[in-house]
Amino acid sequence: MGTQLPLALTVGGMTFLLGVIWGGPFVEILRRLKIGKQIRIELQDSHGHKVGTPTMGGIMIIVPTVIIVLALSLARIVQDGQGASVFLPLAVLIGFSLLGLIDDWEGIQTSRGIHGEGLSGRIKFLAQLVLAGAAAVMLSLYQGGFALANQILIPLIPVSIPLSPVIFIPMTMFIIVGMSNAVNLTDGMDGLAGIICASAFAAYGVIAFLQGQIFVVQLCFILVGACFAFLWFNAHPAQLFMGDAGSLPLGATLGIVAVMTGQWALLPIVAIVPVMETVSVMIQVASAKLTRRYLGQDIRPFRRTPLHHHFELVGWSETQVVQRFWLVGILSAMIGVALALI
Is residue 324 part of a domain? Predict the structure, then answer.
């Protein structure tokens, strides 16, 4: 196992280099095909200049990750029969990526006036539940390679609590779907979602290494390299946007990796930025509905949600929001790793 972490880090670095090399032509292809981003009406004042920027950039993260992880895993399976444990998070990555691609494409078609209103939120949520449910059932039934799944490791207390399938399956579904949508909400500024996801995957890569789950380690650091390659083109001012093709699968994969390590209780700390983005939306919606109903007026605690837009309206520049959120994200990821060590 001593050589496995250097291998994972090296492959992550190679993934970054390959992504940077083929990223330029990929961005040009999207531009020529007019696969452009559409901006919500309420954001036209501050983000209107981004209209038409190529989207579906998640392809740049997912495709090299799948190819490299499959190559490494199949090589180990042929060699010594190990490596199959990574296929489940890889299936989640692919499944949610396909869902995101469909959602992105429907949005682009709608903006072109071709048909309909795009993929509805209800249909997307139901599809997420189906994908997450299938992953949760497989994780619950298959014990080989998932020794730490089906239980919760309590931070600061050296004890693990086994979970019955009745609790484990819906809990896993909630984590996968919740984190998928949380990262999707975070993806609203140049570089924000990519850098937050890279920090979180690095943290869980270290946690998985300490547990001896080397194939999960490889997946995490390959995703870190792929996210960094994407950030090369997504840094402000962005040449490429992630889209649902990237945000949905990254969040879902982060969720299932957390469950596979048994350290999913640390997820709100490691991924504190996506969690707070989601909480801000929930508070905003609940406050508006309750105050409108009982006070007769619409009271909202934030100027706009998700949370990064609130700070933008407060006066922070986009670059300041992203850098400060990343500082919070990387520090919280470090705290998460520290708690996993105790």
Answer: no
